Amino acid sequence: MNNFKIGFIFIFVFIFSNLFLSAQEMDSSNSSLNVFIDCKYCYEDFIKTEIDYINYVRDRKQADVHILITTQNTGSGGKEYALTLYGHNQFDNFRDTIIFYTKQADTEEDIRTRLVKKLKLGLVRYILQTPAWEKLNISYKNEKTNLFVDKWNNWVFKLNINSYLQGEKASSYTSVYGNFSIKKITEEMKISFSLNESYGENKFDIGDQILFSLSRSQSVNSSVILSAGDHWSYGGYAALSNSTYSNKKSQIYLAPGIEYNLFPYNQSTRKQLRFLYRISENYYRYNEETIYGKLRENLIQQSLMVALDLKQVWGSVSFAMEGSNYLYNFKKNNLYVYSELSLRLIEGLSFTLYGQYAVVHDQLSLPKGDATTEQILLQRKQLESQYQYFSSIGLTYTFGSIYNNIVNTRFGN
Prior knowledge:
Elements: H1 2-30, E1 34-38, H2 44-50, E2 55-56, E3 65-73, E4 79-87, E5 95-102, H3 108-127, E6 155-167, E7 171-185, E8 189-206, E9 209-227, E10 232-243, E11 248-261, E12 271-286, E13 296-312, E14 315-326, E15 329-346, E16 349-360, H4 373-377, E17 387-397
Parallel strand pairs: 1-2, 1-3
Antiparallel strand pairs: 3-4, 4-5, 6-7, 7-8, 8-9, 9-10, 10-11, 11-12, 12-13, 13-14, 14-15, 15-16, 16-17
């Protein structure tokens, strides 16, 4: 017991002596720029080790500069990175945006090196207002550049094959997925075509009984979307698919659509509010007779989707709601709601919400008869349900030192 008390006192003295020393050293850090990096999966450890002449703080309200990093996919399979720098305190009137693009073939080293380079350039304006400017050097590498010529004319081809294996003595699972896609994306149009196939099987050895279950699906999808200005677009979809899970031997889907975006499309990395209306003709053939006594049917369906995406200094919001119904019977409908919310309420306190909910009244392909036990447990057949949901809610509160400059990977993270 005495050894325990001595150990506790030692730890107590060690922690508070470090707190005292940190408080004494804080003044030396105050002359540097306080920066808050706001992003998801953006190589923060690498940024801290490469840009080590600023202070990294844990909350935007403690920062002189708040850097919001957002991304969106490009037509070639790469990403567009948008770095928005918001000034606070003495930099209240400062705001800058830097945009750069990566290619699908770029490695993580390529991407994070370019990201750090752009961040360094963006911070120069702010560092010039601090005592640290005297240590700043700027160099320019002069190289002769050639005009860029795209011999593929924005067409991108992609082949993807994935497999997954898992097993032990009494059970095994095998999954195979393949995809081939063709895309062309420009400012004026978006064309896509894809072939997809997936296969999955489960096997269980239960003493004197072996349970085996499989699922398979195939699809061909295509779409052509055209620009009609800064706020409008129109186009169409076509698809052919089948699925053992959904009891669909074949489905042909044809749908024109029109969309309005309240904000200009070129602001989509920061904000968008889109209204998309589609009307489709569907040709169904079923593997088994449905609960409505059908083996095939042709139906017209309409849908309206509202989607909101905001990425701001106070957090981010993603919300989508889509309603659809078959024209022959408005009671055969579906309403789907999705929401993802991340808010910084006060300094150190953040709130997250993720959820989705669906009201389902249009399961026309459900097969007649009961599903087997293995089909239910392994989710190999769609089951009758009037609703589906998922949700997650969280609160995080962080306090203590505002500085977060050190990277230490000993024993992992």
